[in-house]
Amino acid sequence: MPKNHKILVRTPNWIGDHVMAQPFYSSLVKAYPQSEIHFLSSEALSTFDDSSFSQAKKILPKNIKGLGATFFLFAKELEKEKYDLALSLTSSLSSSLLLRAAKIPLRVGFAQGGSGLFFTDSIKWKGIRGNKHKSEIYLDLLNFITGKQWALSGKKGGGKVNTETRDKRIVLAPGASIALRVWPYFGALISELAKTYTDYEIAIVGSFTESYWHAEIERLKLTHVKDWIGRTSLVELIALCRSSAVVVANDSGVAHLAGTEAGVPTVVIFGPGDPAYIRPLGDEVYLETPVGLACHPCEKAYCHEKYGYQACLLSISLDKVISRVKAILPL
């Protein structure tokens, strides 16, 4: 393909996946330095700063529901852009159909569940069965279209924590997009860290869908515990994390924003997820994982194992996570 073509990238929908796709985006720019590259993202990523990778970014209109009239009207809008190539990092049938309806001549993506029908070329989506990090799986698509092997570049990260250049703030992200991945001791962690680090601001962050934490935070009645849930854009959240001493998060989008994008020391509490597949790639990411459970990791959104609901997360004690924070921020 000529180096100066117009390329549309259908990005992943989830924040964590979008961050894990950053090596793909940066390598794509290197592969096609003269091409105009646009991102087609979900509304959830509308405030994510992709300016270092793309000259333009398009957001799916909020009113697109299913495969109705608005879906095909949006395809017509995309058709006007006259893209030469579309690359889809999602393996959904609707994404591949949208690119086909937009009459983009070359459409390359991951085939799964029939989505390959609407691509001109595709490779099978292997997911966790690929036995590699998801960032590398995304790069496989670029390897496929360029015939070259693109490797993960150096990890992002802020290096060792310097408390003299960071604010005295601990960021806690108690939520997750999948309820099964929410560590059940997070409420107790907020309380204990607030009592232990009295001269630190304890900032609680998350999306507006996690508003149920407002009552828990209010109950503590501690002036140095700040409720930021649903009150930051993604850019603001990254900036907040970057200026903080440490972040503690579930296996969630915030973990990737903090550990990879912000480069801040980040403690990630893993339950059903497989760290080898989806861990943040920052230089100072510390993992708390279950030990000795035959069902872990399962990468599932539900739990029907004989060990009991959330046995994986319940095996990670409050003391263990607090000890990890103290190792990063000695008293």
Quick take:
The chain has helices at 15-20, 22-31, 69-80, 93-101, 134-146, 186-196, 213-220, 234-242, 253-262, 275-278, 311-314, 318-328, and strands at 6-10, 36-41, 56-59, 85-88, 106-111, 121-124, 169-173, 201-204, 225-227, 246-250, 266-269, 285-288.
What does this protein look like?
The chain has 12 helices and 12 strands. It is α/β, with parallel strands linked by helices and 331 residues long.
Summary tags:
6-stranded parallel sheet; 32% helix; 2 domains; single chain; 331 residues; Rossmann fold; globular; alpha/beta
Total number of helices: 12
Mean pLDDT comes to: 89
Structural class: alpha/beta
Largest sheet: 6 strands, parallel
Question: Which spans of ≥5 residues are poorly predicted at pLDDT below 50?
Answer: 157-161
CATH superfamily of the largest domain: Glycogen Phosphorylase B
Order of helices and strands: EHHEEHEHEEHEHEHEHEHEHEHH
In percent, how helical is the residue content? 25-40%
CATH level 1 class label of the largest domain: Alpha Beta
In angstroms, what separates the terminal alpha carbons? 57 Å
What is the annotated CATH architecture of the largest domain? Answer: 3-Layer(aba) Sandwich
In CATH terms, what is the fold-level topology of the largest domain? Rossmann fold
Strand count: 12
Q: How are the strands of the largest sheet arranged? A: 3-2-1-4-5-6
**Which assembly state applies to the chains in this document?**
single chain
